[in-house]
Amino acid sequence: MGMMKTEAPLDEKAIVAAAEKALADIATVRSEVSKVIFGQESVVENTLLAVLSGGHALLVGVPGLAKTKLVTTLGEVLGLGANRIQFTPDLMPSDILGSEVMDQDETGRRSFRFVKGPVFAQLLMADEINRASPRTQSALLQAMQEYHITVAGQRYDLPTPFHVLATQNPLEQEGTYPLPEAQLDRFLLQVDVNYPELAAERQILLDTTGLAETRPQAVLSAERLIEIQTLIRQMPVSDKVVDGILALVRSARPGQGNAATDKNVAWGPGPRAGQAMMLCARARALYEGRLAPSLDDVHALAEPVLQHRMALTFAARAEGMSVRDVIAGLVKQAQG
Q1: Contacts of 132 (CB under 8 A, 6+ apart)
Q2: Rounded to an integer, what distance in angstroms lies between the CA atom of residue 292 and that of residue 244?
Q3: Cβ atoms of 270 and 185 closer than 8 Å
Q4: Closest CA to 87 of 133, 134, 128
Q5: For the chain, where do the domains classified as CATH 1.10.8.80 start and end?
Q6: CA 40, CA 200: separation in Å to the nearest integer?
Q7: Which strand (E) or helix (H) includes residue 63?
Q8: pLDDT tens digits for 39-51?
């Protein structure tokens, strides 16, 4: 679930001190992002949680909701080297990964040289990822999971940290190729981007149509981000929260004794969903100023962690149900 340095566990006092420092850094990141992105608190929070947890996020929403702006802002604020790829139907895998070109030296001797593609970035913005062909989408798979690519039998490691923040248009739109389940599962969270509230939209109108545009400042570095990601993995998780994660993830799978799931869910989330929940619950606790995650974190993260990792039966879809309805029901049962 991400590439991380392994370090000796910190003692309790050291974790508290490191967490307090991380809290201050995260608060600065939040205030810097809010200068440019108005409203959309849950979108900013979930996208940041994915990055703090060391993972990738999929932002889903109609065009014009500042998804691209959010990603470029995060790149600047977190001090990450960022690249952007606009996915189109004619995009080839080599346009993402890079390709070999033939060089000729003074003696006339020819050799191949690898020219790196835009995937070699700490923050990769994959814009409208579902507009590219499945072959090109799958070129990102190895990179997202293994943090390296292979071209002509040669392995090339990606920079650290490496995060993919992809945007996707709702699948009902023309000219889209649904992402395969294996690729969807590589995203730690799916973040739904909805229309802004009235007050936020008013602020957008006033602040973005003048002469000067607010620019965010870099407040972290890649090295500091890696330190915070390592700290998050060292945060303690109580047995109660671990059991809550297991109960929720397993209740979303058919054949596990949950009547509503058996009736409505065709296939459910795998163990990677539980891993995502463990990491993001810790990150959310830290984001909100706490040193250990609670069951509230688990329930709040149920939708972004689970919704892209399960599918409804044909009968449930015919009745107009959505995956979100099913997850809301499971959370309600868990809160019991």
Answers
A1: 87, 88, 89, 91, 177
A2: 14
A3: yes
A4: 128
A5: 235-336
A6: 8
A7: none
A8: 778 888 999 999 9
